[in-house]
Structures are given as C-alpha cells and as structure tokens.
Design brief:
The structure holds two protein chains of two kinds. By secondary structure, chain A is mainly alpha-helical. Chain A folds into two domains: 69 residues; 36 residues, no CATH class. Helices cover 77% and strands 0% of the residues of chain A. In chain A, helix 1 runs antiparallel to helix 2. Chain A is flat and about 55 Å long. The N and C termini of chain A lie far apart (60 Å). Chain B is mainly α. Chain B has one domain: Four Helix Bundle (Hemerythrin (Met), subunit A). The chains are: A mainly alpha, B mainly alpha.
Chain lengths: 106, 206
C-alpha cells in the first residue's frame, strides 16, 4: 500500500465511511423511487444509470480508496475504463434497427 | 550473460524500477483484475440492453422489490463491515479484524441464500434459460447469466474472505492482504449497483 493511501485511511476515521455508506443507501433508495415513477422506460433507464454511476464513483473513490492513491493511477483507471466502456456502445444502432425492422424485415 | 547478471548489472548502475504507479504488486494486480472484470460485466449488461431494446415483448415479471431491496441493503452493509475490518487490521486489532471479516462473510452468505431463494421462486413460476410464461425466452437467458455471474463472484468472495481471514488470524497474511481482498468485495458491491436497476427495476410490473 502506498503511504498516502495508508495515511488517508488512518486519518479519515470511520465517520467518513459511515457518511459514504449512508449516501450509497440513499442513492440506492432513489433508484427504487425512480422505478415507481410514471415515466418512459428510456427516461427511467437514463436516470437510474446516472444514479448508479454516482454510486459507483463514490464506492470507488472512498470505499476502494482510489481517491487516496496517486493521481496518475486515478486517471489511468478512469480513462482506461471509460474509453473501453464507451467503445462497447457501437452496437446500439443495430439494436434500434431491430426495433424498427429495417432493412431485413422489408 | 545470464538474466541474473543483467539484473545485477541494472541494480548496480542505479537502473532499478519501483512499483508501477507506486502501488504494491498485489494491489495493482487486483486493480487490473477489477478493470478486466468490469469489461466482462459491462459486456453482459450491454448485450442485455441490446436484447431488451430490440425485443418488443420483453417480460416484466417482478412484482415486489422487497427481496432485491433487502439484498442491496445486505451487500452495501457488508462493504461497510469490510472497511471496519480493514481499519481494525491497520490498527493492529487482529481479533477485531477477524471478527469483522467473518461478519462480512455472514452477510455475503445471507445475500447468496436470498439470491438462490429468488431463483428457485422464478424457476417454480416456469422460468428457465430458454423460456418463461411472460414473453421472450431471451429474458431467462440474460437474467440467469448476469445474476449468475454476479452470484459466482459473491461465492468466490465468500471463499476468499474465509481463507484470507483465517490466514490473517494465523499470522500468514497482513493488513495489506485484507485491503486487496476488500477491493474485490467492494467491486462485487459496485457491480450490484448496476445489476439492480437494469435487470430488476426496469422489469417491474406496474
């Protein structure tokens, strides 16, 4: 473990962990509230995904102590993960083509 | 010249290389595994989204959120207990750290049992990998694949928690090893934050 991460853990105290835990519980609860809103599925999906991303960010930064690591490592994880995740989205046009039934169903 | 000679020569001329990103090797290996595993889960979830978007009669079989809410609460709480265990280990409280790791293990087991109970309930309603009474058979395949992959990770985590906890108590592992295991456990929790909305909440019966 790096000195900075270990120091941050020692100095942070359990209070910070509890605050993050309560925030995560609240955000998880918010997802359940969104599930019962009378909105379109696509809107629901976007809202839930946004909340999930915030939850994941909090968990990574504070529970997994990424915030206490060297900044270069933090940026490595963020840039590498986000770029690959974005790369996976190339197939969506095909999915919408399936919905619209074009061109093969015609 | 042998590899050993080359290494020695490198050391003597001040060419030693420190850990990448100034992170211990075990921890870096776990982070790289987590990044790779993120891609696995993301591929599954994107494929699921692709199918759900492109299938008109996608089933929405979940009537209640009680079970999944309870599972979410248990998994989030297990992340907190894991953190407390790590703090105890860093403070040198070996007994306390072992106790909190075992509490985390117990919460993981409860989560897995609730998950299996839910699976049995769905199977009893007629859902299999290839068919279900509500709509396209693809739903069962994607549901069991994604939740099954996650349940496999939880099960592996439970085994690892017991193994590392016992070895830590016996003095063979230290607080750094608990931190590395904690990274994995928090990752399992993190994945669940995406599985719940996409697989469960978007398929609630209104």
């Amino acid at each position: 473990m790096t000195t900075t991460a270990a120091d941050a853990q020692k100095s942070g105290g359990i209070g910070k962990d509890l605050i993050v835990y309560v925030c995560l519980l609240a955000l998880a609860g918010l997802q359940f509230v969104i599930a019962y809103q009378n909105i379109d599925v696509s809107q629901m999906f976007v809202r839930m995904l946004a909340v999930a991303c915030v939850e994941a960010g909090l968990a990574e930064l504070f529970f997994m102590h990424l915030w206490s690591e060297k900044r270069v490592f933090l940026w490595f994880v963020i840039i590498f993960t986000v770029s690959v995740l974005l790369g996976m989205q190339y197939g969506w046009t095909d999915s919408f083509r399936m919905v619209n039934g074009a061109p093969f169903s015609k | 010249m042998s590899q050993a000679d080359l290494t020695m020569e490198g050391h003597s001329s001040g060419m030693t290389i420190g850990p990448v990103f100034s992170i211990p090797t075990k921890k870096l290996a776990m982070w790289l595994f987590i990044i790779a595993d993120t891609m696995t889960f993301a591929a599954c979830l994107v494929a699921y989204g692709f199918l759900r978007n492109g299938t008109p009669n996608w089933p929405r079989p979940f009537h209640s959120i009680t079970n999944v809410a309870l599972m979410t609460f248990i998994l989030l709480t297990s992340s907190l207990t894991m953190l407390i265990g790590l703090r105890s280990a860093r403070a040198g409280d070996k007994a306390g750290a072992f106790r909190w790791i075992m509490i985390t293990t117990a919460l993981g087991i409860v989560f897995a049992l609730l998950h299996i109970r839910e699976w049995i309930g769905l199977i009893n309603e007629g859902m299999t990998l290839f068919k279900n009474p509500w709509g396209t058979g693809l739903f069962g395949a994607s549901f069991f694949s994604i939740t099954g992959l996650h349940l496999t990770h939880v099960t592996c985590g439970i085994i690892a928690l017991i193994a590392v906890g016992v070895r830590y108590k016996g003095g063979r592992y230290n607080a750094d090893d608990i931190e590395v295991l904690g990274l994995y456990w928090h990752f399992v929790d993190l994945v669940w934050m995406f599985v719940v909305p996409l697989v469960y909440l978007l398929n609630l019966t209104h």
